[in-house]
Each structure stands twice: as C-alpha cells, then as structure tokens.
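Regression report. Comparing outputs from two consecutive submissions.

Submission 1:
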Amino acid sequence: MKQLPLILLIALTLFGCDIRKSDKVDTQTLNEAALKAPTTVQIIDSVHNFGTIKEGELVLFNFRFKNTGTNPLVIIDAKASCGCTIAEKPEQPIMPGEIGYIKARFNSEHKPGEAHKAISITSNASPAFPELLLKGTVIGKTEEE
C-alpha cells in the first residue's frame, strides 16, 4: 500500500510529459523560413526510363539531387501527375553539399500503353526544381492468361 502513491506519481509523470513534442518540427515555420532562404540544386536524375514492363508490375526509382547552395534545401511538397504514381519527399532538410532523394513508385495495373508520369516538386530551390519524369511502356495483359 505504501508503494501505491509512488507508482501513481511515476505514472502521472510519465503520462504527463510528452517527450515527442521536443522532437517535432513545426513544418509550417520551417517551410516559411526556407522560402526566405533560397538555395540552388543540381538534379542528378530528372528522367527514369523503365523500359518495357508487364501490366501489374511496380516501378520503384529514387530521383537524386544535390544541394549546391549555401542554405538547407527544404522539399515542401512532391506531387505525382496521377494516382497510379506516388512520390515521397525527404522529411528533413538537405544540407549544403548533401544528396537527397525523391522516391517514386508507379503501379502499372490497368495502365497499358506508353507511360509518362510527372512529379512536381515544391521547394526553396532557385531556380525551381524541374519536373521529374518516369516513362516507359506497359504491355497489357493478354486475354489468354
């Protein structure tokens, strides 16, 4: 019984402190600050030609870029041109001299024919990021399968 108040005190202390708050970055503040401090970027991969694939295959590719400026590069948004393509941006700023990646994933299910999937990047780069492009040919499923 003497330990019950001590256990309650420890439990309240642990649940009352949200340790994660100190690790969270206020992305809106970060984005606003980044836009006021532009940087330059060198695009290493702007186009990925995945060749010819069968319908239903996934294409995964990491577009590379390098922060060639003097300020941190902040990728604010990465949007694909359609729902069959997903673009994933880095969550942390890319420091000067570092290489960063935009991860792209294209799902070719129900997408036979020529594929040209664009990814638009919003960042503090000046000049702005060019569109990134996934392209290739998707061979449709035959009726014999």
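Submission 2:
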Amino acid sequence: MGSIRLQGIRFVAYTMDHEPRHVHGFHAEVEVIVDLRRDGAVSLADRTDAVRPSNGSKSDVRHVLTVAANHFEELALIWEKQHERA
C-alpha cells in the first residue's frame, strides 16, 4: 500500500487493487475513489460506491477531487509504484 497526506486528505493506492488507475481519498468521514485518467485529469470513479458513505458531504467530495487534481503527478506515481510489474 502506498499513501500520502496532502492538504488534510490521506490518499491511498492499494497494491492488489484493480484498473482503472485510481486512489482512495479519505477526508473527514468520507472516502472518495478518484480515477487518475490517462489524459492527466481526475474524476469521481464510475461506480456505485465511489463515495462512502453514499450520503457523504458534497463539499468534502469536491475538496478531495480538487486536491487530487492539484497533485495528479504525485498520486499517479504512487499508483504506478504499487502496480509495477517485475
């Protein structure tokens, strides 16, 4: 597992996690799954459990996505290091 704390958010890339490339952002009481797209953008993961709990604060979700966008390269590097193939 690789992780980093940025602006009060803990971002985690799990070693045995699946494609597409993504990180889990933990802020306040909310977990947000953020896709790290190949075009250099971030987006909320396209899955029903992208925000946990499902009634998580919209402002917390926006904050996680904004911080992820501002630190895209760092987060993509964490994902890539966790998923390197020998």
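Expected: both submissions complete independently.
Actual: both completed, but the second showed a warning that disappeared on reload.
Relevant detail on submission 2: The longest helix spans residues 58-70.
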